[in-house]
Design goal:
Layout: H1 14-30, E1 61-63, E2 73-77, H2 79-91, E3 101-103, E4 107-111, E5 118-120, E6 127-133, E7 140-144, E8 153-158, E9 161-167, E10 170-185, E11 190-195, E12 198-211, E13 218-221, E14 224-225, E15 228-236, E16 254-263, E17 267-270, E18 275-286, E19 301-306, E20 316-321, E21 324-326, E22 332-337, E23 343-347, E24 366-370, E25 376-380, E26 383-384, E27 388-392, E28 401-405, E29 408-409, E30 418-420, E31 425-428
Parallel strand pairs: 1-3, 2-4, 3-6, 4-7, 5-8, 6-9, 7-10, 8-10, 9-11, 10-12, 11-13, 12-14, 12-15, 13-16, 14-16, 15-17, 16-18, 17-19, 18-20, 18-21, 19-22, 20-23, 22-24, 23-25, 24-27, 25-28, 26-29, 27-30, 28-31
Region (Disordered): 30-54
Protein name: Rhamnogalacturonase A/B/Epimerase-like pectate lyase domain-containing protein
InterPro entries: Pectin_lyas_fold, Pectin_lyase_fold/virulence, RHGA/B-epi-like_pectate_lyase, TAT_signal
Length: 433
């Protein structure tokens, strides 16, 4: 979150460090230990951190094949090689800074042991900087096939690592119902970045966030989310396992850029405790349907599911821009929001690819349950299929506040586009069918 300082640097920059060193050297050469003139800032005011210990020995880049013995043939269990690579990286942390890049060459790697890729439990390690680097999507493939699926993750970070990067990697679930990443935070686990990565197979969770405070500043760039999700690809607020119920809500700043979200069924994002979420660019498609009814979701698969959990007031902000959605069945939902405050904004988005089909007219791909404090809803320059549904939450509020500006409705006239409580929905320069 904005305003936090890193535990490894205390917020000091390279310029601060150089300035402090220069000032100290000047003072030593002059032999002056008297107080500076009034109003002059001393080098001590910069509070530059003192680097202790020695830089760890060993290579800064480690290869899981050449250095750790992985086979990458898709048949040999490479769990031990990946565990060895992570242990090596964790052992080279110096002054809370990670010093190792883990290279994973082209190949198919079978991993059966839980937490083999990242195994940081109980917050024993406070480190900043860990990087896993593959050869490219479809070139470096990790198949996670544990012997049991329940509560089993390929990566586990319990309040230990910040600034974790995954680049050009593919992750496949070989045991249906296993999960990719469990992240528990009381302030340390944050700043994840996924670049040109891909997920396939049937997962329970992609990334499951838990704990108190942070679990924030996470970014996905040019990634493909495939497969299927029994819960959601990104689920924020897994439990109430929190040191502070008020801070359970601090799930902030998630960016998805130029994504290819094309999965079979399940939810993409689920945020019951609020959050600040931005999705820009790409194509979002649910290609199939759930194999059976879910107790929580029925038959629906939802890109953005924001139910209302028991929580304190927190940021509730969602923005989608320049995205093409495909609503292929009546069970595909773009937005299902019951937040009790905040804003929801769609700008220059299009979900009309299948507006010509017979189910489209009766579909409701955007659904809101709104109270006295919102959320406030806005659609700008969007092309929209079906109807949008607005229902009061029963708290006795004045009803929804929503605005559609320069939008095109493919299946209904402007007067028939809103289902439910639409008395406080306004339209500006919109076109109906």
């Amino acid at each position: 979150m904005a305003g936090r300082t890193s535990p490894s640097t205390g917020g000091a920059t390279r310029r601060t460090l150089l300035a402090g060193t220069a000032a100290a050297l000047t003072g030593a050469l002059a032999g002056c230990d008297t107080a500076p003139p009034a109003g002059r800032q001393t080098s001590d005011d910069a509070e530059a951190p003192v680097v202790t210990g020695r830089k760890p020995k060993g290579k800064d880049v480690i290869d899981v094949v050449a250095d750790c013995g992985a086979k990458g043939d898709g048949r040999t269990d490479d769990s031990r090689a990946f565990a060895r690579a992570y242990s090596y990286a964790a052992g080279r942390v110096w002054d809370h800074i990670g010093r190792t890049v883990v290279d994973i060459p082209a190949g198919t790697y079978l991993i059966r042991a839980p937490d083999a890729l990242l195994n940081a439990r109980k917050g024993k390690l406070k480190a900043n900087g860990l990087r896993f680097r593959g050869a490219g999507k479809r070139m470096t493939q990790l198949i996670f096939a544990p012997h049991r699926a329940e509560d089993t993750y390929l990566c586990r970070n319990e309040d230990s690592w910040a600034n974790v990067a995954f680049e050009q990697l593919g992750f496949a679930c070989g045991t249906p119902g296993a999960s990719f990443f469990y992240s528990y935070s009381t302030g340390q686990a944050q700043d994840y970045r996924f670049t040109e990565c891909e997920w396939t197979g049937e997962w329970t969770y992609g990334v499951a966030l838990d704990g108190t405070n942070t679990n924030s500043e996470m970014r996905w760039d040019a990634c493909r989310v495939g497969g299927a999700y029994r819960k959601a690809f990104l689920y924020s607020g897994l439990s109430q396992n929190s040191l502070s119920r008020k801070q359970q809500d601090q799930f902030l700043n998630y960016w998805f850029n130029d994504m290819k979200v094309e999965y079979s069924w399940g939810n993409f994002l689920e945020f019951p405790y609020g959050g600040s979420i931005t999705c820009r660019g790409g194509s979002y498609i649910v290609t199939g349907s759930r194999p059976e009814d879910s107790p929580d979701y029925g038959r629906t698969s939802t890109f953005f599911r924001f139910p209302r959990g028991p929580h304190h007031d927190s940021v509730q902000r969602f923005h989608a821009e320049d995205i093409r959605f495909e609503v292929r069945t009546p069970d595909t939902v773009v937005m299902d929001c019951a937040w009790d405050s905040g804003t929801v904004h769609f700008n220059d988005c299009d979900d009309t690819a299948n507006a010509f089909k017979s189910f489209a007219q009766d579909s409701r791909p955007h659904r809101y349950r709104i109270g006295a404090r919102g959320p406030l809803v806005r659609y700008d320059s969007c092309q929209l299929s079906g109807q949008h549904s607005y229902e009061p939450d029963g708290t006795g509020g004045a009803g929804p506040r929503a605005r559609y500006d320069m939008c095109h409705f493919r299946n209904h006239s402007q007067q028939d586009f809103i289902a439910g409580s639409g008395d406080r929905v306004s339209f500006v320069d919109c076109l109906g069918s």
